[in-house]
Model the fold of this input.
Amino acid sequence: MSLKRALAAFLLVSLLVLAAGCRDDNADATPTPEAATATAVSRQPDASLPTASATPRPSPTPASLGLVSLDAAAPVAPSVVGQMPDLGQEAPLDGSFDIVFDQPMDPATTARALQVLDPAGEPVPGEVSWPQPRILRFKPAARLNPDAEYRAVLADSATAADGANLLEGLTLSFYTIGDLAVSQVSPADGVTDVALDSALTVIFNRPVIPLQVDQSGLRSPDADFQALTASLLTIDPPVSGAGEWINTSVFVFRPDDSFVGSTTYTARVNAEAVNALSATGAVMAADAAWQFTTAAPTYRYLNLPGLASSPRSDYKYLPLDQPIEILFAQPMDPVSTETAVSLTTDEGAAAAYASGWNADFTTLTITPTQLLDLGTWYNVTLADTAQAAGGGTLRFGLSWRAKTYLPPEVFFTEPADGDVAERFTSGFTVQFVSPMRLSSLRDRVVFNPPIESEGIFSEWDWSYRFYGLEPATEYTVQILPGMSDIYGNTIDEGQTVTFTTGDYEPIAYFNQPGRLSLYRPAGSTAAWAAFRNVSQLTAALYPITRRELDGLLFGDIVDVRFTPPADPVWEQTVSTADAPRNTLTYRRFDLLSPDGSPLPPGLYFLTI
Done:
């Protein structure tokens, strides 16, 4: 179909639809004959067809649409398009209510049509003003109740500036802001053991001050704001410090110094200061107070520098010049703490010492100014009267007891005097009861018969060890007087120790280079056995299979526990009673047949 024909068809359809839409329901419903329609669009009328009648048809009457004819000059009824505060927002207690219309209103009739009701339904007195011709503002004469719903009732008598009335009356609800209250504090009410360096935090249930970028912008840093902020929180006993707003509803107070330990504080939020600061008009009904108790000062532990950390009481072997540290959990007052410390014997005799502190007064070090007595129990006492730097006495005191090094002496020797050993050990030990000076030990332990090695002193266990003794030998050892401890105290009496060493353990084995040996038919047949301190040797030669050899070589069979199932090719027992004692001796066995002929080639297992 060409574009022209398509356009003609579209127009035809459009006209038909229009005709149908404009048809009068009361007009003649007789349809137009199809022949007339065909004649209207044909270029060459067919002479055989009848000619359409030229009588004109009546025009259709337009149908009624039910529309009301309006006067363009008539006024339009006003309507309310908004309110302030809007729904979901809270009105200040000293604020106002705004009603926004869609057109300028008549102030007098609209004001008379308005009535504001309180939560009890009673009228609220106030003044009406018009900031703009479309905005009615109601300002209550008195402060509103907090956290309450107020209703603005507007009658349909309200009139627009052009005289049109509201179509119908309406009611708008306004909600006032709730009371300000403290919702959370830290430390919490009634808490004990509060850290002495804690800050106090007050969190309100709603914003108090307006949101600003920095502290200098909070309601402008004028004198009133600073004074109100400073008076917002009071603490008893008084504590110097400064408060600041972390955000619009969180206030933090930081003391200049630590709180006093073991003290109950009462903190109070000043409602008058809060109300003066309140940017929203919300009011705090009354002061909010709570109490907390600070932790008592405590010590952490006692320390022996370079020796032991947090040693238990009844500690033994305390060096005579050992510094003693007491570590505290907080800075301490040095005068009261040093007064509370003592170092005395069990009998009550005081030891001389010097006191020292670290930079922050959390570690007290007491150092003897004279050597403590040997073998004496000493008591370190810290009374609970010691005070922290910020005040408060210790929760509990400290009592620790220790015994100093013993006077130097030989604790024992090993072997001991008169020992006759059954088994041989090559060493001799002199054990002391306290640390000794190595230079004083040299040449003061004399062996007869002499040994070649020098002694080795252990500072760990205070032992003096010698090695190189011979078996089955009687030794006489002289421990000479003059040995001294690390402080110069000497052992003034010597002693003599006589003992006899034991024999070497009995041993016997084939002296082969490895577990597997290869013998050639024309080569040596010797298998040498090494032995010591045994009276006889029994050797046996067994044939084995390839599987058994593999098991021995690869660990499936443990050779020291293996007894071949086959009978031995030969077994020989020889006496070795004439072999020298404690001396490694050798004995030859020849790998031959029982008749002395060479063994046939094969795999064998040799035991002794």
